Recover the amino acids of this structure.
């Protein structure tokens, strides 16, 4: 007998019929002799409806009241799912964030979980009840309702699994698991059987949208095994877990791409200490996230600095950088929003040389020019012209032999 | 400076535009130098939508989960109203039942308030905040969400007013106040300026649907002055308050009617102790409310017993009564669902004779036969044939001079 935490997203509980299907799956897991805790999101579309209502009310709703409003979405789902399980003859009980309690900091609309109570839930499980928990929501020290940001139900599920020391945290979604790359780009992309937390974090932050990043960080911290799988079939999905020896034998686990960044270059900057701070401080103050940063060795006392920002922030960033460039005596600023970032990720590259060279050679052989490079222990990213994105992903997927067999 | 509690029902907060109007009225009360606590219902139609969703899910939803579901309606409204007040430049903070807390018993879907916390709200009022409270909901000792039954927001408002010792509890609705009778029946029905709790209780339970009965009981117990008024104009409404000398000078305050009852007679019962218990116990067990009961003096050892039940329960009641009638040796059972109850109410009749006779004479003069009579200290009710209902109400309204002047 295991303790299983299951999380179902908005599309899996989008209608009363779909909730009925979820109830059947939950019941089956219970009938197999497991203790079951279910975390659910709001019915698909509900959160958007509530957000629209708040915007109809006023332009800049306070975050505290926004949380009071949007947290009703999950509240509706837990009640309906519990009712359904009860009508099928099971004991079931719903829990709101404050009833568990899920204690968070007081950062409304993007709160972080600090602590999870397990006493109430354990008591119910002991009594043979299926426990149904509202995802996405918590409560701060003053008793205010908080929410965890979009995708926060993933984090709720992992946190509850950690708090209860569950055997597995199953995250049900509309895809079969985590793939070696986007199957819309590479038709023979294959499902990854298991992947380390570190790789999953790189995958998530580099553009794969299966899990909320914070949920993976949480799982890593508390060593929770996540099983990402489809709510529409019984196929095994992808296990996200602690790195093991087997994983290291794989050079590259996945290829990702991201077209949401733009490139800015500041040219011929007089090279002296503090110029980087001069350029980036105004961006930080304006809440613009800088991703890759490249500064070459200085040449006759001058250097060039290149970095990427989210495409949506390019205009605002350019204005700030042009101001700074004038002040620090740079010769000019150029920008380019026709770029993309392709990356290869794998814990195996830590113990194997030549992975980066193999990537560069493969891109070069297809005539793809590399504009920027950045590396970490387990990934290599290259910025290229955006029209080559799909080509680059396919080439890298091939050269590192990630395709599924028999296709 | 006064402490004012205001309650707005579903039609007053039915759209974001209407919520904006409520916010303006709340703000005006605040600007006049008052501390303001606002209790709101769910947006009109929302509770019905949620109930429909639960029925789509299963036939007999558990009451605990039903409360989790329907309480989201008020949660949406408090968030929107608070946002609106904030966007107008006011400090505002929303409160859910469990945040106040509104402690209730554990009777899901029809909970009774046991205790109201006032510390948190007082703190906010001291800081210059307008406090916005979700009506209809509370929390039991185990932390389960409870609801107070349909119309429960009235009771929430009175309970909060009692807990805070507010100067007045204003209940905003879509009518101007409490009328001497139903204006749809009598065109010159007049608004009552003030009415005692006792009279209001009789009015409410006899068919006037302005306030939830329980809210009036609560107000009476804690001596809360209720001001029933319209949210669409600034007219003074009706004060519901402790009886004063002035009220006693009025013989009759109002006339009500109720067409929702049916009459059952058990004929020629051998008269010995215990027959009433034999007849009514099965009805109590079946949860059927018996209203008027008439038993005449016995005649040659036999008596007749007549009583009324809600029309919807007539069939079920008849079946039970016919069984009993056979057992106790009565000669037969008759029933009539073409009846109505008209009543006159007034604390003045305690100290004046002849009020009942005047009523009987007035009905008789119009050829209306009286089938049953029941009286209390402050009311007289007559059961008549239902086709005479409107005529009877008009006649009584006239004879006790309740019509407004100049009409």
């Amino acid at each position: 007998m295991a303790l299983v935490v299951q999380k179902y997203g908005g599309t899996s509980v989008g209608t009363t019929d779909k909730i009925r299907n979820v109830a059947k799956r939950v019941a089956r897991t219970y009938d197999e002799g497991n203790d079951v805790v279910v975390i659910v999101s709001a019915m698909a579309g509900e959160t958007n409806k509530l957000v629209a209502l708040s915007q109809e009310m006023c332009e800049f709703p306070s975050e505290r009241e926004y949380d009071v409003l949007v947290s009703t979405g999950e509240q509706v789902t837990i009640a309906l799912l519990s009712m359904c399980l009860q009508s099928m003859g099971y004991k079931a009980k719903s829990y709101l964030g404050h009833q568990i309690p899920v204690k968070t900091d007081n950062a409304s609309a993007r709160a972080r979980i600090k602590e999870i109570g397990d006493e109430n839930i354990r008591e119910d499980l002991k009594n043979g009840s299926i426990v149904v928990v509202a995802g996405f929501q918590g409560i701060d020290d003053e008793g205010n309702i908080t929410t965890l940001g979009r995708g926060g139900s993933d984090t709720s599920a992992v946190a509850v699994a950690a708090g209860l020391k569950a055997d597995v945290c199953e995250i049900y979604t509309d895809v079969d698991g985590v793939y070696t790359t986007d199957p819309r780009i590479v038709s023979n992309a294959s499902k990854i059987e298991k992947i380390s937390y570190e790789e999953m974090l790189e995958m998530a932050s580099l553009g794969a949208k299966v899990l909320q990043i914070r949920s993976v960080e949480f799982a890593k911290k508390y060593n929770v095994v996540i099983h990402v799988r489809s709510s529409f079939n019984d196929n095994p999905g992808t296990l996200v877990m602690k790195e093991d020896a087997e994983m290291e034998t794989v050079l590259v686990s996945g290829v990702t791409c991201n077209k949401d960044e733009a490139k800015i270059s500041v040219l011929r900057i007089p090279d002296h200490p503090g110029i980087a701070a001069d350029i980036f401080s105004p961006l930080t103050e304006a809440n613009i996230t800088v991703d890759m940063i490249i500064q070459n060795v200085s040449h006759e006392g001058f250097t060039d600095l290149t970095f990427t920002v989210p495409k949506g922030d390019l205009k605002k960033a350019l204005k700030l950088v042009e101001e700074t460039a004038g002040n620090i005596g740079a010769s000019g600023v150029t920008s380019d929003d026709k770029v993309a970032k392709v990356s290869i990720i794998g814990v195996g590259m830590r113990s194997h040389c030549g992975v980066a060279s193999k990537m560069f050679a493969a891109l070069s052989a297809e005539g793809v020019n590399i504009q920027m490079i950045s590396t970490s222990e387990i990934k290599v990213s290259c910025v290229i012209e955006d029209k080559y994105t799909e080509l680059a992903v396919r080439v890298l997927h091939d050269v590192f032999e990630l395709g599924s067999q028999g296709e």
